[in-house]
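User: Look at the shape:
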Amino acid sequence: MHKENSLKNLLYGLGSFVITTLIGVIIPRLFIVSYGSEANGLVSSLKQIFAYFALLEAGVGGATLQALYGPMARNDHGQISSILSATNHFYRKTGVWYAVGVALLAVVYPVCIKSDIPYYVIVGLILFQGEGGVLKYFVTSKLQLLMKVDGKSYILTNLGTFFTIVCNIARIALMYSGFGILTVQAVFCVVDVLQVIFIVGYTKRRYGWLDLIAPPDYRAISQRNAVFVHQVSGLIFNNTDTVILTFFCGLKVVSVYAMYSMLFGMAANIIGYISSSVNFAMGQIFNSDRERYTKIQEAYETYYLAVSFALFAIAMIFILPFLRLYTRGVSDIDYIDKWLPILFVAYQVLNYGRNTSANIIDYAGHYSQTKWRSVLESGINLTVSLAAVHFLGIYGVLIGTVAALLYRTNDIILYANLKIMKRSAWPTYRRWLRNLALLVLCGWLGSFLPELYSGYVSLFAAAIVVSVFVMALFLIVNTALEKGARATALEYLKPMLMKLVRR
């Protein structure tokens, strides 16, 4: 069941990525053309600010996931109900505070920024974006946690894909028809309500045994405070860049940052689907069979890093050619910068490459032991970014992020291997160095590619050819040099592939 659900999570996730990328890549350009770079920067800025509202969750979600791995592996419905009953108690309080926060933000934010966008428009955008969070905490969050730990992430993925398609088609139609930005963003409210209805209906049918009024097991999620510290530092770290740029460089520069972030985010989304598709299984195995987990984790790390580095290498090669086409005719700010791809690829490689080691810490529940390390990471990011933004602008903000990641990524690798797995960290570093060398090689070779792209079709054709070569290079080299990982991968993949073929 683990293998089948993991494969479903991955395949549906990748399918979702293809569809949502094809549709979603249209939206930012339409936004810029229809409403200007300032409006696009405003929407991006609000997204990052709302990310801070997740702090109101106070670590409950992460603590709940870790607490559920064991009971789910044992199929203990009573314990699962007690844990989610406690989670539900906290989430209802979170929903109230979230609504209050949205109202306060609508009052304060418009007067704190320099913008030519009307006051009422900014207020409306805040209210429309905040509505989804209120619904989530009151109704769906605890149900989504249950689905994730049960390996049903692909259900959420398919649901998200469907409604993303419907939502974006509606938004594109409204923009082409000349409707204002408020009307376009209001579509999200309708979509949020529809998703809530589906999730509630599905979980009632699938988990009829779930009792959210069972005696709550608060001890099971007692690590929520430690998780909260991680969340605070993580949110500060992940959202500092946009907020600092908003107040020190302006919304147009935020739009530039958001554009590069969006494009590198396409590669990051694929990596995220790979990770999330197996997390439920890896978490359960870690808490039930440590020897088996160690064997699987070695293979997973090998191929996860290979695919991650390959995807970011491809993104680095093609981001500037794509942006030249994508922003053609946009004159309110220049989106082309030869240094930003290098800084962004350093940021993304360090941020996503460490996930295999970070997951070990999550599965082990070592939140209290590592919380202050996470705080230090955020402190480095904030300090360096604030100091450097005055002199280097957007470069300074990204340098601050990379500096923090250099510290914390190494710390995570060492802690996961030495403290939890009781083994040398060299195999992980060896894989990093190998894939880093391949990334630099691909980036260097990519600089010699002639830019003969007259349009999206020729650019896409070139990207396909180069992507196949780059991905093959990374996979072949890593497979050849990792005997144990190769054997484990074949052991697990062969039965799954044979089953698919028979179908």
